[in-house]
Amino acid sequence: xxxxxxxxxxxxxxxxxxxxxxxxxxxxxxxxxxxxxxxxxxxxxxxxxxxxxxxxxxxxxxxxxxxxxxxxxxxxxxxxxxxxxxxxxxxxxxxxxxxxxxxxxxxxxxxxxxxxxxxxxxxxxxxxxxxxxxxxxxxxxxxxxxxxxxxxxxxxxxxxxxxxxxxxxxxxxxxxxxxxxxxxxxxxxxxxxxxxxxxxxxxxxxxxxxxxxxxxxxxxxxxxx
Length: 225
Known about the structure:
The chain folds into 2 domains: 32-118; 122-224, ATP synthase, E subunit, C-terminal (hypothetical protein PF0899 fold, 2-Layer Sandwich). It is 71% helix and 9% strand. It has helices at 10-118, 124-139, 156-170, 204-210, 212-224, and strands at residues 143-148, 175-178, 188-193, 199-203.
């Protein structure tokens, strides 16, 4: 009985030892797996949070871009509208000036025609008297030579009437004589002093030129009345 071995055999010992080792390994693996799962969940959670932040940032950026684009569009629209209004105002003013010039030219032509038609009327002699007297007063000399166009019937009798009218207004006398220079081409009269250095032009075109501002105001008032 001495050969009888008490206790476990070597195989049984190894079997027991391997069983303990397997249990420890499983526990270690389970721990690692849990840590890995936790780490994976953390990574996934952080990734989701980062994606959400990026989405929010992108949305905010998109809203800001849209806001800036809308503001720029409004500015462009206002700029186009203001430019259109400015150009329209300029164009309207240009058309107004054109109409004013055309009407002014028409009025001037009518004035010329009307004054020319007066040469055959009985009242034209009185008009000539007024022109000559006005020129004599403007010239303001003791003697003046009167020149006129072929359509203006100026004679010595008319000059005497002008001298009397001059004296009535100026309280002194003037001597008026018919000029020996070639007759004027344009309707009206021109007076010169004896030396020929001073002159007063009272021809129709000159009178129209002197009165053009007043005529233009009348035309403007007619257009905007």
